[in-house]
Amino acid sequence: MSLPSDPASQANWQDVASEHVHFDWLVDFAKQTLSGSATHTLVWRTPDVREVVFDTQALDVQNVLVDGQPAEFSLGPTHAVMGAPLTVALPANRAVGDKIRVQVFYRTTQDCTALQWLDKEHVPPLLSSVGRAASGPSPSSSTRPTGSSAKTSTSCVPSPISSLSTVPPTLKLSLLPPRFLVTAETILPPYRFGVYDVLVLPPSFPYGGMENACLTFLTPTLLVGDRTLVDVVVHELTHSWFGNGVTQANSTHFWLNEGWTTYIERVLLQLLHTPADRGFSFLIGRTALANALAQYAAKPKYQRLVIDFDVGEDPDDAYSTVPYEKGANFLLHLERVLGGLDAFLPYVREYVAAFSGRSITTEDWKRHLYAGM
Known about the structure:
This protein is of the alpha+beta class. The chain has seven helices and 18 strands. It folds into two domains: 10-171, Sandwich (Immunoglobulin-like); 173-373, Neutral Protease Domain 2 (Neutral Protease, domain 2, Orthogonal Bundle). Its main location: cytoplasm.
């Protein structure tokens, strides 16, 4: 299964791709920097490719080793959205399937938007990182699944590099109530990541929740005492199957992450509570969808589920509830057309099992749907 190019990336991942990355970092709270290295295990997809190109964003690259030896490298001009391409020379005469280790030594700068330093709100100071469409705290060859390990956590399960999370190891994490996972596993394949922790961050955390593999970040504003906002936790948990399991090939297919997650989140609300909870959640979402469609009335391209981004166009410009709500309603429509939950949920389990640990496009999903109906 071949994947299309990523309009928000300058990396040559179609020629040589990262299948594993190991991070060795020093966190300096006084200077508010991360420094150290990212070691990529690369595999050739095209024979005799002589260079690998990484995406970087506001990084000070200091040195590069290829299989332990100093290598030639250069950092290209900075694009406003895609950042600066880091090009590293590779040995010649390599065949498809050959592997090599590339270690990039670098440190972050004050312009690195993926890092959030919370020294005034938390004692001791706290750092969190979020890797999104075109920004991250490390050199990246793509947003496609890759295993990752760091000083604070280790994962041998393939997951998107965009789900990389960073927190100090001294923080106490909370375990998700078992009934959430147990209920999810009644309709989906078994949870893949071994553990699932929840970290409540200070109020300045800019999202309601963030679905890092194994570890969900949450805003403290969800802690209202009566569990009425538990749907956010269920949403982030569901990303373990949709987003961190079956992953969008690029931002054009963002709805595969968020539409599916929102749809299954509401199925789980029905199983955990009542069908009325599911229905009410769709009603609330309908208002948000109407507002988002009105927001992009002058740019209907951003009202679509599948957005044909131009090269270098910022995917965040199209960010709204459209992929969440329009995607979830589309899947609800399919559920009803195909015979209801009893008929649709077995297909959902089969879909996740077929593509878990892989990046796909909407066309890949459609072919699988048509083949199974």
